[in-house]
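Training component of the fellowship. As part of building independent skills, the fellow (R.M.) carried out the full modelling exercise for a liganded target. The chosen ligand was flavin-adenine dinucleotide. The inputs are recorded below so that the supervisory panel can assess the work.
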Amino acid sequence: MAKPVLLIVDSDQKALDLIVQDLEQRYGDRRRVIGQTSESEALERLQKLKRDNEPVALLLVGQQMAKKTGAEFLKQATDLFPAAKRVFLTSYKDAKAGISALKEVGVDLVLMKPCQPPNENLYPFLDDLLADWETALSTSTPGNLIIIGYRFSPESHQTRDFLVRHGVSFQWLDVERDEEARQLLAAAGLKANRLPAVMFPDGTMLVQPTNEEIAGKIGLQVRLGHTSYDLVIVGAGPAGLAAAVYGASEGLRTVILERYAPGGQAALSSKIENYLGFPAGLTGSDLARRAVTQARKFDVEIIVPQVVTGVCVEGPARVVRLSEGSAVRSEVILLATGIEWRRLEVPGIERLIGAGVYYGGTLADASLCRGEDVYIVGGANSAGQAALGFSRYVRTVTLLVRRESLTSMSQYLIEQIGATPNINVRLRCEVAEVHGEQRLEAITILDCSTQQKETVPTHALFIFIGGLPHTEYLKGVVKTDDHGFILTGPDLEKLGGDHHPPLGWPLERDPFWLECSVPGIFAAGDARHGSVKRVAASVGEGATAVLFIHEYLSSNL
Ligand SMILES: Cc1cc2nc3c(=O)[nH]c(=O)nc-3n(C[C@H](O)[C@H](O)[C@H](O)COP(=O)(O)OP(=O)(O)OC[C@H]3O[C@@H](n4cnc5c(N)ncnc54)[C@H](O)[C@@H]3O)c2cc1C
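Fellow's submitted model of the complex:
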C-alpha cells in the first residue's frame, strides 16, 4: 500500500510551512505529508489521490480560505475520504468556528495554531488519531482470516461478533451468496451443515468453534498466569478496566476475568460523545482498545473468555470460581459485571436471536444489512446512537419507542436524529410479534395509541431496551436488591434500618462506600445498586474502589 497521506490546507503560508515541517519530522518516514495554501488545489489533489486509490489518513484544515471556509472544505473532502481523520486548525480569533466545526462537520479534533511545541501541542493528539485510523483500516480491511457461514445462523453470528468485539479483521463469506465460500468448503472437504468454519492464515481451520477456541487461536490470554492475585476484577467494562489501571499502576497484582470481550456495554456504542476529554466523541471500541492497552501497559492480565460462576470466602482469601471448574484466590475481589439487555417478551423471538433479531448489535451487524429497512427497539441513548450509526449503512432505520416522546434520550442525539432523513421515529409503539422460521422475515408493530397492528417485512430487528444485572453468581454470598443490583456501603446500612454497622456485617467498622456485604469484596459500575449507568460514572467508581481497596489491604479489616 502507498504511504498514507497527511494533507494540510492553510492559507497562511508561514503557519503551513511550520506544520508541514513538524509533520515531516515525526511522520515523514511512514506517511506522505502534503501542504497546500489553496483549497481548490487541495481538492484537486484529493480527487487525484482518490482516482489513484491512495489512502488519506489525515486532513488538517485551517478556517481561513480564499473562497470557502475550512468547514465547507472539510465537508467536500470527507465525501472523497470518509475514513480520514479530520482536524480543524484554529486560532484564538476563530475559536467559535472550531466549536461549530465540531458540531456541524463532526471533526475529530480542534487544534489551536501554531501547535508549538509540537511534542506537547501536536504529536500526542495526532499519534492517537493516526492509531485510531490504522485500527479502523485494519478491522475494515479483510484480513487473511476467513469466516464461512450463514448470515442468519446464530452460530455464525456469534463467531463473527466475537471477532469483531476483539478487533480482529476477517473476510466474511456467506455460503448462500458467495461462490468462493462453496469452493473453499469443497477444497477443505467440509459439509455446509457444519458451519461456521474459520480459516486461519497458517492453514488451520476451526469448525463450529467455541469462543475459547477462537480466543486461543487469535492470541488472547485464556488461562491465568498465577494462582493468586492481590486484586481479582470480574468484568472488563469501563468500571473493571479503570479499576485495573489504577490498581495495577499502584502496585497491585491484578487480573480481570471477562466472559466475552473488553469494553462491556460501552464497546457497543457507535459514538460516545459525552465522555470528558473527547470533544469529538469516540467509538466504544476505540475506548475499549485504548483502555486495554493502558491496562496491559501496567501488566494487568485480562483473561477472556472466562465466566465467573461464584465467589466465596476462605479465611483471609477471597475466592472466585470459574465456569471451567477452577478457582482463583486473591486478597480482594471487585465485582464490575454491569448489566445485560432485558429480554423482549414476544412469542417466537428466542429462536430468531442471532437470525435477524439482535440484542445490542454493532456496526458490523448493520453493515450486513446494506440497503435494507431495519428496526430498532428502544428510546434511550443507546438506541439513538445505534440509529445514527446504522443509518450510514442501511436504507431506512425505524426507531420503535414505547413512550410518547424521546424524553430518555439526550438532546444532542434527538437533534442529530431529526437531521437524518433515513431515520423514522415511531412513538407509542411496541413489537407485538416476530415472524420467520429460519430467519426473521417480518415484525408486527402495535400502535399503542390506536391499538392498530401493522406487519412490515424486515430481516433485522435490533433491541436496545436497557438492562438488568445478572448477579445470580453472587447468590447466598453477597447481598443484592430485589432486581439483583449489588448493595454496597451505606445501602447495606439502610437495609438494617440504619443500623451501625449493618446487620450481618462481621466487623466493627462500617463497610467502605463501594464495599459489599462481605469485607474485601467491592462493587463498581452499572451492577451496583443506585449506579448512574454512564461510562464516566463507571470509570469513576472503578477508580474510587481502588482507594478503598488500599484502605482495606492496609488495615486488613
Ligand atoms: C449501546 C450503548 C451505548 C452507550 N452509550 C453511552 C454514552 O454515550 N455515554 C455514556 O456515558 N454511557 C453510555 N452507555 C452506558 C455505558 O456503556 C455503561 O454505563 C457502562 O458500560 C457500564 O460500565 P460497567 O463496567 O459498569 O459495566 P459493563 O459495561 O456492562 O461491563 C460489564 C462487563 O462484565 C462482563 N461480565 C458480566 N458478567 C460476568 C461474569 N459472570 N463473568 C465474567 N465477566 C462478566 C460483561 O461481559 C461486560 O464486559 C451506553 C450503553 C450502551 C449499551
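The panel noted the following from the submitted structure. The chain is about 30% helix and 20% strand. Residues 234-240, 257-260, 264-266, 268-269, 272, 274, 307-308, 336-339, 381-382, 385, 470, 473, 525-527, 533-536, 538 surround flavin-adenine dinucleotide (CB under 6 Å).
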